[in-house]
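dude i think i finally got it to work??
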Amino acid sequence: MLLIAHRGSSGTAPENTLAAFRQALRDRADMIELDVRLSADGEPVVIHDRRLYRTTGVRGNVREWAVTELEELNAGARFGRAYAGERIPRLATVLQTLPPTIGLNMEAKTDGDRRRAGLMVERLGGLLRSTAGRRDILVSSFDHAFLRQFHRRFPDVTIGVLYYAVRDFGRSPARLARRAGGTVFICSRAQVRTRWIQMAHAENISVLVYGVKSVRQMIALRNRRVDGVITDYPARLRRALHPRA
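look at this
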């Protein structure tokens, strides 16, 4: 079972910052999940929300700020004084900073951005060319139309479809994944069903589950043959999964 650090080790460091990603390395996560949006000038930056306020205390939308302006914002102080120097990182900086031994699950965020999804395809795909063959990369999104475009343009990159219940109810994981060119299906702990896991595996689709916070939840999912869990606390889960390591 893969242990994937949600926005880095976001339970113990400010989410989607270099501090959280370095902590995930120390926690021996197998992969890091992070979120990607585009700045006003089209630079891929690592932040979850479309609005800046929750993590930086500044009002405004990510898509309205140039990358140099975003880099000046404090993305760590709200988590704790020790992280007051943390910034919103460029994706390029993350790729340059993290060793290629750690895999990355990049969730592309296109909501609230009126620009064509094609811009995200080109900017994200262009950056990933530099890592081709050197790092395990998964590109995921709730925007399945974006994923289809990305897969057509960059067919060698692994694609993961995120399940959105209101839209995707009644569709099988394999159908959702295949339509987007994906080989990975991702849903929340509350949404996952054993029959989905079985159906996905029958079609060689891997299943990842997010929102996993406790050892008990992880063990239950492992017993159901889930391929990986996305957690804020990878160190806690790793100690339980590999107690002698």
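DSSP finds eleven helices and nine strands in the chain.
im so relieved honestly
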